[in-house]
């Protein structure tokens, strides 16, 4: 197995250097921005004369469903700018505007189910990084930061920008306003940026792009973008941004009684140059306004919860490192949150993010306060990444945790070779990383981790292979490590043909193999094995999805494993076979459903797992969704059932006023958690929240309230 993976990796490295260029471009592939001196009324009405004076482009080509064919609906784009803002006007003509799919309005909506318009701006023109902006006919907003030519997408980033839309009998129209202070760009007087546009016509499942419409590419691959020219004289953009916050609320706990809570603090953001931003934070706002979705862990390994706190979200992509998702030298939830998810006060911190020339820099230092038995600590992370070749990079990282009389650190290097021109127009990436940890009071003070991977993510053939390792003494205390003392070998091959002789099928998916093989790093004995073979999977042209899988698994328990209270699986080596079916309807319909079932052997017995999700979109203002997971496990040591339920009601009055009610329960904790949230955005960058969190103990004959918290929070943005 190890030799097979190494042969695959060596072969991939050998073919790296066979490159030609056969990019799919459409003429014109450049658009010039038109300078204006009068204000724009942002309302979605593009009848103002300046919009007619600007250059227009309309050469859009289908990516789906008919690659390379002309778009069936006409789309036009024009760009304006003044001293402070970039404006993008979009004419999305439609012969049947009454059939537009526009179901959502809240910030960071799920645009994949909607008619939408997307554009990406590569402000450094480095064919690597960009800002992605999306709207739908309702004027909902979504944005993200894109790195490494689409390999990293930070969807949690919330930039300061605005958009207004209008629907008429000719289609729908959008007017974007992007402040230059939201973007980072070079200091050249004459700017040349990469830019690309995409429109999705959901009822037809049609996707059209301005440039790079091959199915092997996504709009996030800025190496396929066209060029934006004509922007001059904006290199002097500077910004001092103040974001104070205030919190007030009450909490009633069955153990400690009622308490009033309040807090103030804030951030100072200074745009030193258009390429470099400095942040200061005092008494950092780490109050979460949305609850984590709690999960019942039926494995031997740690669960990963995503970061949701605003301060860490903006720059988290700067600190990504090439060890993958299971080995993270830096995991921001280690700062200010205890293992039980209780908060630890943050005294202050500073952060520097930006890019100078071909060098990307990220640095952050946070000081936490002492709380109970947890000492005060300083957390510092430094990241350097250098662009090399056309789409590749090398980098370094250093992460430190300093406590009184104790230190923990991780330092490492990574590289990425990436091309979108292999074999003419295909994508290929090869990368790797190595890191060492140091723990001052450990018996074995240092430990190593590394990763080597190859990825060939294309429309017909999608292949990847990975070799991961973390030694027994590797200890990233400011990071995340799913398991220790292991080596993992992975390879995944998917073949995705599009048969013309099946008119209702968009794409078939066959998976000849997909395996994750873990061995003990010291003994090289089996830890676990997961393999999957997919004899059939497909997506229909109407949007339905189906797949069937056969799985072979193995687990080598070095000690007894308590999988559930009172149910212990003896140590030993176990092999079992499982089967899986998945089916989903098209998410763009008012009613959507997803069904997952997995059944078969499980250690010394059997396990059947069900997952059901349903969504009802009543109108653009209200949607209701629910999901249910059940694990029914029968073992000689005992039989038990784990049920997990979650439900959500989303309400949107406008793109600036929306809320939700989220509830979850499982019979393992016997606790109901409810989260009610309202979010009002009076202007971009300013947020007001009203939140109610309620928990009930359901273990007795009747529900018992265990905790009630009512919180109001305001974050206001001032620009100096």
* Tertiary shape: globular
Which fold name is given in CATH as the topology of the largest domain?
Immunoglobulin-like
CATH domain class of the largest domain: Mainly Beta
User: Could you say how many structural domains there are in total?
Assistant: 3
At CATH level 2, the architecture of the largest domain is: Sandwich
Low-confidence stretches: 7-22
What gap, in angstroms, lies between the N and C termini?
60 Å
Q: Averaged pLDDT, please?
A: 88
| SS field, number of helical segments | 3
Structural class: mainly beta
Question: Could you estimate the helical fraction of the residues in percent?
Answer: under 10%
Strand content: over 45%
Largest sheet: 24 strands, antiparallel, barrel
SSE order and pairing:
Elements: H1 2-14, E1 30-32, E2 34-35, H2 49-53, E3 56-57, E4 61-64, E5 75-81, E6 85-93, E7 116-122, E8 130-135, E9 141-147, E10 152-154, E11 162-168, E12 171-179, E13 190-201, E14 206-209, E15 226-232, E16 239-253, E17 257-273, E18 276-282, H3 310-313, E19 327-328, E20 346-356, E21 359-368, E22 377-388, E23 392-403, E24 406-422, E25 426-439, E26 446-457, E27 461-470, E28 480-481, E29 486-495, E30 505-508, E31 510-520, E32 526-540, E33 545-557, E34 561-564, E35 567-569, E36 572-584, E37 591-602, E38 605-617, E39 622-635, E40 638-654, E41 657-666, E42 671-680, E43 687-697, E44 704-715, E45 718-719
Parallel strand pairs: 1-15, 2-5
Antiparallel strand pairs: 3-5, 4-14, 5-6, 6-12, 7-8, 7-13, 8-9, 9-10, 11-12, 13-14, 13-15, 16-17, 16-44, 16-45, 17-18, 18-20, 19-28, 20-21, 21-22, 22-23, 23-24, 24-25, 25-26, 26-27, 27-29, 29-31, 30-32, 31-32, 32-33, 33-36, 34-35, 36-37, 37-38, 38-39, 39-40, 40-41, 41-42, 42-43, 43-44
């Amino acid at each position: 197995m190890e030799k097979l993976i190494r042969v695959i990796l060596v072969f991939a490295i050998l073919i790296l250097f066979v490159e030609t260029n056969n990019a799919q471009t459409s003429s014109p592939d450049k658009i010039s921005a038109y300078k204006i001196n009068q204000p724009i009324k942002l309302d979605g009405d593009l009848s103002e004369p300046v919009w007619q004076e600007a250059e227009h482009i309309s050469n859009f080509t289908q990516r789906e469903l008919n690659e390379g064919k002309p778009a069936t609906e006409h789309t036009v784009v024009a760009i304006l700018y003044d001293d402070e803002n970039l404006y993008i006007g979009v004419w999305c003509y439609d012969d049947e505007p009454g059939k537009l799919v526009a179901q959502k309005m809240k910030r960071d909506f799920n645009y994949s189910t909607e008619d939408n318009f997307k554009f990406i701006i590569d402000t450094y023109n480095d064919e690597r990084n960009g800002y992605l902006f999306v709207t739908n006919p309702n004027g909902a907003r979504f944005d993200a930061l894109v790195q490494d030519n689409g390999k990293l997408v930070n969807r949690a980033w919330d930039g300061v920008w605005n958009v207004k839309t209008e629907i008429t009998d000719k289609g729908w129209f959008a007017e974007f306003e992007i402040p230059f202070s939201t973007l980072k760009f070079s200091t050249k007087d004459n700017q040349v940026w990469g830019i690309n546009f995409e429109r999705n016509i959901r009822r037809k499942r049609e996707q059209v792009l301005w440039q790079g419409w091959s199915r092997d590419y996504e709009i996030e691959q800025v190496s396929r973008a066209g060029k934006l020219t004509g922007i001059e004289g904006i290199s002097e953009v500077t910004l001092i941004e103040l974001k104070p916050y205030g919190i007030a609320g009450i909490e009633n706990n069955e153990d400690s009684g009622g308490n009033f809570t309040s807090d103030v603090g804030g951030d100072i953001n200074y745009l030193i140059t258009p390429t470099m931003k400095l942040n200061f934070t005092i008494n950092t706002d780490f109050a979460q306004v949305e609850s984590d979705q709690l999960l019942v862990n039926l494995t031997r390994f740690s669960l990963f919860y995503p970061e949701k706190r605003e301060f860490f979200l903006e720059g988290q992509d700067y600190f990504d490192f090439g060890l993958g998702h299971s080995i993270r030298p830096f995991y921001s939830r280690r700062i200010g949150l205890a293992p039980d998810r209780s908060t630890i006060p943050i005294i202050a911190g500073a952060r520097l993010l930006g890019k100078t020339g071909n060098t990307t820099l990220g640095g952050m230092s946070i000081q936490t306060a002492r709380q109970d038995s947890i000492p005060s600590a300083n957390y510092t992370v430094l990241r350097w990444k250098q662009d090399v070749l056309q789409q590749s990079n090398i980098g370094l990282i250093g992460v430190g945790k300093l406590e009184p009389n104790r230190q923990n650190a991780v330092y490492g290097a990574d590289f990425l070779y990436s091309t979108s021109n292999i074999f003419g127009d295909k994508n290929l990436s090869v990368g790797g990383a190595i890191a060492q940890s140091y723990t001052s009071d450990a018996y074995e003070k240092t430990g190593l981790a590394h990763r080597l991977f190859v990825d060939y993510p294309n429309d017909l053939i999608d292949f990847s292979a990975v070799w991961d390792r973390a030694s027994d003494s590797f200890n990233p205390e400011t990071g995340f490590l799913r398991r220790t003392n292991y080596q993992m070998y992975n390879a995944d091959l998917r073949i995705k043909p599009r048969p013309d002789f099946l008119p209702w099928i968009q794409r078939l998916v066959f998976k000849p193999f997909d395996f994750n093989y873990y061995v003990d790093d010291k003994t090289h004995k089996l830890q676990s094995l997961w393999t999957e073979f997919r004899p059939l999977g497909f997506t229909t042209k109407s949007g339905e999805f189906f797949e069937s899988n056969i799985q072979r698994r193995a687990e080598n328990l070095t000690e007894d494993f308590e999988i559930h209270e009172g149910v212990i699986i003896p140590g030993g080596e176990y092999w079992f076979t499982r089967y899986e079916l998945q089916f989903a309807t098209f998410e763009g319909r008012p009613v959507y459903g997803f069904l997952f079932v997995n059944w078969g052997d499980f250690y010394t017995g059997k396990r059947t797992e069900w997952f059901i999700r349903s969504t009802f979109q009543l109108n653009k203002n209200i949607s209701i969704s629910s999901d249910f997971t059940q694990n029914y496990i029968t073992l000689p040591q005992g039989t038990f059932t784990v049920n997990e339920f979650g439900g959500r009601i989303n309400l949107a009055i406008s793109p600036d006023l929306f809320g939700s009610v989220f509830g979850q329960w499982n019979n393992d904790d016997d606790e109901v958690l409810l989260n009610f949230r309202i979010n009002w955005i009076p202007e971009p960058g300013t947020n007001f929240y009203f939140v109610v969190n309620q928990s009930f103990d359901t273990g007795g004959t009747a529900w018992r309230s265990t905790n009630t918290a009512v919180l109001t929070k305001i974050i206001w943005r001032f620009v100096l």
